[in-house]
Design brief:
This protein is mainly alpha-helical. The protein has a domain at 1-94. The protein has a 3-stranded antiparallel beta sheet. 13% of the residues are buried. α1 (12-34) packs across α2. It is globular, with a radius of gyration of 19 Å. β1 and β2 form a beta hairpin. Helices cover 60% and strands 8% of the residues.
């Protein structure tokens, strides 16, 4: 069952707990995937606002799908949407513009999907159950760090 703020039986204290949990998960995601671990007050404030907006939009979407007003052809995930919006709204970075590497299992990283898929198939043939994950490149993380530093200086 998906958690959301539109459940009628959630108290204001539970709302705060839920929002805090989503905030922590969002920080973890920003750190794990993009190397962002030290938000400025402006970045943190905008992240909190994006979380509130996104959670409400997800709840509205689920309600519209549930009532038959919309067809549920797309999955709406605040976990993916929040970091994407944060990067776009603060730094103008679109998810489709982020260069990617491909991670097979826990350790192996490949610069192109074809080589990653070959390795994935090799591991499956060996009886392993590996996974394939698209991740931002190390160069992108360095670029984002530089952009953030420049923005922090301009924000004062």
């Amino acid at each position: 069952m998906q958690e959301n703020l539109n459940s009628r039986d959630i108290s204001p204290e539970q709302d705060k707990t839920f929002l805090s949990r989503v905030y922590r998960r969002s920080l973890d995601s920003l750190k794990k995937y993009y190397g962002v671990d030290d938000l400025s007050p402006i970045e943190a404030s905008r992240l909190r606002q994006i979380i509130k907006e996104t959670i409400k939009e997800e709840a509205d979407y689920e309600k519209a799908v549930g009532s038959g007003e919309l067809e549920g052809t797309q999955e709406f995930s605040y976990r993916a949407e929040i970091p994407a919006r944060w990067l776009f709204e603060l730094y103008g970075i679109k998810p489709e513009d982020i260069p990617s590497d491909y991670k097979v299992g826990d350790k192996e990283i490949f610069p192109d999907k074809g080589r990653a898929m070959n390795r994935l198939n090799e591991l499956k043939y060996q009886g392993q159950l590996p996974f394939l994950q698209q991740i931002p490149t190390a160069e992108f993380k360095k670029h984002l760090k530089k952009i953030r530093e420049e923005a922090h200086q301009s924000w004062g």
